[in-house]
Write a structure and sequence with these properties.
The model has no long low-confidence stretch (mean pLDDT 92). The protein contains 17 helices and 16 strands. With 499 residues, the chain is α/β, with parallel strands linked by helices. α14 crosses α15. The structure holds guanosine-5'-diphosphate. Guanosine-5'-diphosphate binds next to α4, α14 and α15.
Length: 499
């Protein structure tokens, strides 16, 4: 598909049924309007309400973003350390997402932060982190505004009133959890109707200039109170929120009372939240997109059907042969590729850090799939702060998302992003938890499992670290029983997923 002239008539297809604004030039970011040319037409339409909210957020980002008078004013206020509820109607409030971990984690985190910003009418700014890309990989999602936090407010100690953003963690004094524990912030009556809150430790009990939200895996009870309605009212008064998260906490927002109604209206199909938000926010830069489209044209475009296989191994000690056997057994059991003595016009796309898997799958299936078995890269290991490495990872997530069928690896956010963008419910290969030691028991369980893969319950990413605490009830609950649209994930037994 070629667009030769600068003037392209954008159709509803290019704009993903109204999800995207037509306010960008075509050439500045080809992936934005070419997504539709490489992907199947989505069976999920964004609701008019979601579209209206997105346009409203774009206007907010433009009015309050870096470079505007409102931003300068907010930054000055932050520098002077003065807190206080935003009283001026023109005053802007901000959410800074501190990005960390691998690219899949970062994308899910940014998506969650973006939705939280929309719900709370804050400007989203992303601190892509000092040890990894992001800024150069994606096009700007909002017209006439940047979503990248300028250096003057990030990490540069000379200027930044926030200090080094990469150093915020669960121990930070300004975290919601620690403020609640130290009595700096007080919320009472959270379980009843008479909710009250105050900033006990600050001068004249005014809200602080900023609060840090620690929402990363392994976070504690008090940080998890973020998901309570009462605590959201407290946070609403704070001009700047900093947030460190590594995952997809959108299901948690659906469980937070003040957001439930809005989310209902935005997402009549709840299981398409990431599918819409991800396709709205992420547009690979022209350089990355060129790599995607070139690879696609040479290796995948001609096939009758594209089968994507994402192999991720978290435990170094897990034998590769075992991982391969699991995949082959999944493919055979669920007849995802042609059996022996049959050929089809399929192409297989393999992504993995190791070339061995692509080679083995080619040896097994190369003769049966006329479209061939292709593996774009084999990086060996995950790397940090390497832009070319990140670019290849992003290209592969998008290549996977162009497939017609996906087999992904459990626990992997890389696979979640691919499936979510594609709008496909993948076959998910079980994996032992990445955080545990590889034990004899795990080895045995992996080797003898009779379910090499399971079909995901929806196209949504899994939220790995939900809060089980029901703030109104004052006790833990079984999250998959409280709403019909919340299920446990097939790959992470304690995780939840929208369906
Ligand atoms: P997760 O760790 O599987 O949840 O996914 P992340 O994307 O957060 O982190 C894994 C990182 O390792 C990726 O961002 C890449 O940098 C790298 N990586 C893992 N698997 C692949 C792969 O199949 N292809 C490429 N190019 N990179 C990969």
């Amino acid at each position: 598909l070629f667009f030769r002239d600068a003037q392209v008539n954008l159709t509803a297809d290019h704009l993903l049924d109204g999800l995207l604004t037509a306010d960008f030039s075509y050439r500045s970011c080809r992936s934005r309007y070419e997504f539709t040319a490489y992907h199947q037409k989505s069976s999920h339409k964004p609701s008019p309400y979601l579209i209206a909210k997105l346009r409203k957020q774009e206007a907010l980002q433009k009015r309050c973003g870096p470079g505007t008078a409102a931003y300068k004013k907010a930054l000055r206020r932050l520098e002077s350390g003065s807190g206080g509820a935003a009283t001026d109607i023109d005053e802007c409030r901000y959410l800074v997402n501190i990005s960390f971990r691998g690219l899949g984690n970062r994308m899910l985190a940014v998506t969650s932060a973006f939705l939280y910003a929309v719900l709370t009418e804050r400007v989203l700014l992303v601190h892509w982190g000092n040890n990894g890309g992001g800024a150069g990989l994606f096009c700007e999602p909002f017209p006439s505004a940047t979503w990248t936090l300028p250096r003057t407010a990030a990490g540069n100690k000379r200027y930044s009133p926030l200090g080094n953003l990469d150093e915020y963690n669960e121990g930070s004094e300004k975290s919601l959890g620690n403020m609640l524990q130290s009595g700096g912030a007080v919320v009472s009556g959270a379980s009843g109707r008479n909710v009250s809150w105050s900033w006990a430790s600050s001068p004249r009990r005014r809200p602080p200039a900023y609060v840090y939200l620690h929402l990363a895996g392994g976070y504690g009870f008090h940080d998890k109170l973020f998901f309570c309605g009462a605590h959201q009212r407290l946070l609403g008064e704070v001009p700047w929120l900093l947030m460190r998260t590594d995952g997809y906490f959108v299901p948690g927002l659906f469980l937070t009372p003040p957001f439930a109604g809005e989310l209902d209206a935005m997402f009549p199909e709840k299981d398409a939240a990431f599918h819409h938000l991800g396709r709205y926010l992420f547009h690979p830069s022209n350089a990355v997109w060129r790599a995607v489209t070139r690879y696609h044209r040479s290796n995948l475009a001609g096939a009758g059907r594209r089968v994507g296989v994402q192999i991720r191994v978290f435990q170094e000690k897990q034998p590769p042969q075992q991982v391969l056997d699991q995949l082959l057994s999944c493919v055979r059991r669920d007849k995802l590729l042609p059996p022996e003595n049959e050929t089809t016009n399929d192409a297989v796309l393999v992504t993995s850090l190791s070339s061995w898997y692509g080679e083995r799958i080619r040896a097994e299936y190369g003769g049966r799939v006329a479209g061939g078995v292709h593996q774009p890269s084999h990086e060996g290991e995950q790397r940090w702060g390497d832009a070319a490495h990140d670019a290849r990872a992003l290209a592969e997530m998008y290549l996977l998302s162009t497939c017609d069928l996906l087999v992904t690896t459990g626990f992997s956010t890389f696979g979640y992003v691919a499936g979510g963008l594609a709008g496909l419910r993948p076959w998910v290969m079980a994996r032992p938890s990445p955080w545990e030691e590889w034990t004899e028991a795990q080895a045995k369980a992996a080797a003898t499992s009779e379910t090499p893969c399971r079909r995901a319950v929806s196209i949504e990413p899994c939220f790995h670290s939900p809060s089980y605490y029901d703030c109104a009830a004052g006790k833990d609950v079984e999250l998959d029983k409280v709403r019909p649209y919340i299920r446990r994930c097939v790959d992470v037994s304690w995780g939840i997923q929208l369906k």
